[in-house]
Amino acid sequence: MVAASGWPGARLARAQTPLVRPPAVFHTVRGTIRDARTQEPLVGATVAVPEFQKGTATDADGAFALTLPAGKHTVQVTFLGFKTLSQRVNLTSADARFDGRLESAATELREATVEGSTGPTLGDKLKSTQMGVERVTMAEAKLLPALFGEVDIIKVLQLKPGVQNGGEGTTGLFVRGGSNDQNLVLLDGATVYNPQHLFGLFSVFNSDAISKVDLYKGGFPAQFGGRLSSVVDVTSRDGTSDRWHASGGIGLISSRLTLEGPLPRLAPLMQRLRGLDSTERAARPRRAPGTITLSGRRTYFDIFTRALNKRNEGKANYDPIPDYYFQDFNAKLAWTLSDRDRLTVTGYLGRDVFGFKSPNGFDFAFTWGNTVGTARWAHTFSPKLTLVTTAASSNYRYEITNRFRDFSFGLSSRINDLNLRSDLLWTPDSSHAVQVGVSATGHRFGVGRLKAGSDDGTVAFGADITYYGTEYGLYAQDDWTLTPRLMVSYGLRASAFVNGSQAYAAPEPRLAARYSLTDNLSLKVSYTRMQQYVHLVTNSGASLPTDIWYPSNTTVKPQRAQQGAAGVSYLFAGGKLLFTQEVYYKAMANVVDFRDGAQLFVNAKLDEEFLFGKGRAYGSEFYLEKKQGPTTGWIGYTLARAERQFNDRSRGEIINGGKWFPTTYDRRHSVTAVLLQQVSRRVQLTAAFVYTTGNPTTLPSGRFVLQDLTGGQTFVPIYPDRNQYRLIPYHRLDLGLVLKMRPRHGESDLTFSIYNAYNRRNAYFIYYDFERSEVESGTGVSQLSQPIPKQVSLFPLIPAVTYNFRF
To answer: What does 4-16 look like in DSSP terms, one character per residue?
Structure first.
């Protein structure tokens, strides 16, 4: 054979004939990355091909997709706290699949921070377009000091900048000036309407049943809608696939137990049912088994109070102590039906039970709780296209019953949701990640049911007020990498709500962008518009079990909000420290309040009690985080304002003369600091400090006296404008110690915590008491009643210990 270059005139031929290069051929490698020990998906793991300097991060299910030129390449997977995994993949002729299992590096790294942590790395946060996002894993949450030793992931979120609580020890969230009902709380895609136990002191999320929580404070992805201020996206744990495990804990107020393990293989069983012999069964492919997780938790206040009441039964002047307990149960089934299909089913049942019986025949019972269920089917059409379909049911209900001898009285309220949604995930190439979805939710609002009567039937009456509504959503979003330095996430959500003949609809655009000035410095901006069609009817700052959800109608307009944010992220100290600073402004319309003395229960004209106004919130958040080394944690500072205005004079909806006034959760300054110190492999020290400006409150500035004809006096307080006073500043230090033990089988530890370590008496609320004193005058001695302000505090120094185990 003679080379072309040796032919006469070859140079001329090459000069005259244009060079035609064959088109480049690309294939996609797709798979999932999991913890080899627990089989939990690793979220935010880095999957890269060093030879091309190209990579991606795993999503919420531990999945990834990476498009590469045809050929054989080495894929490298890294994740903090785990050994690096490298493996060759063959992309010469078709797409390939790569499912990786990472081994923990805890045995090699004496400076491991959190074993098995599945949070994103600081580098991932730097490169992401998403702003105002916080992720907390249960591995981190279990290390922090906790009230009564009960780990609560919602309280951990309160330690992040831009998030305020609803009061001393409560789990209410007030995010960037929004109210508590403006938070969308999801458990595996299903709405949880009241995520609180014990009147807000604890959340409904069992630490053993939860994998992680993502909090979106701004720049919401287009798939989320229906609330104005935040999204709390809770993901439950998959069970282990290697063998059965048991874990749990015994604490001061509650105990918990979790069982998890593999399910039996379905294919061999179905083959036996079809009568296939062993040879035929062996020829059929064996499908991977599924996993199951069962987790329960219960408090035992009632066990001690009942024993104490029984001991003192019959004693004179003894008042029985009310019974109270809460319990919840989580279950999750995850089944890989085929290489292309995965099914997960999640269930949650939680109840609070409060009861009181007196010797004189008075019987009072109060129960409330959530019931949630989801079924999610993920089908992979190709390495670039996946469809996820979710059906969800949510139910929240409270019921109060009173009985005195032969007469009974009952009051209840509820909300029921049925939701169906489909999400299509498409990655056409390495520069685009497209997500399109549609959803529909049917709401049933039981805003008040009253039933009362006597046992003999001579007295009987009742009322039942129920409304219906349907909420729709359609969205599309694209994460577009324009250049290695510029990435844009843009999308549009169209939402609608129908209530009888009344219909509302609105566009909700979303935009976020990240520009990398250097490899360690990024600038970010975002804009979001949100619409909320359901409203929480409450007359307090905290979310109580008796609060009522109410739909938009001809009188009650949907709430609207627009939020813009800009920020900078800087990674330094060799990638160990990340500093972020964000400024934001949020404008709200049709925010809801209530008239003074409003009748909220069993009121067929409840919307006449509503007041509608405007809201605004703005501030700056500073955040410094460290995730590597023996010392980890974060420091956050927020400077912010949150205000409301009610100035509709045509309807008489005026508060404070139509002027802007601070909300009850407006705190000018907020500082949080969290420290986790790995002393040794067996000892971990933790500390958390909180400082905030005192809550705004309304107190009387004076009083006048009404005197009747008999000489009696009535003191009437004079109130100034709303929320013009503030309580004293709030601050608290919590300390913790985790001591890992060395059992013969499995793992165990003792967790010691001290809540409010220096016994700060923080103000829960202020009230006035009156003290009488004698005053001499020209006409003799008279009695003078002086108002004395008094402070109520909830929690002094509270030590706790919890024993945790796993085997």
So the answer is: GGGSTTHHHHHHH
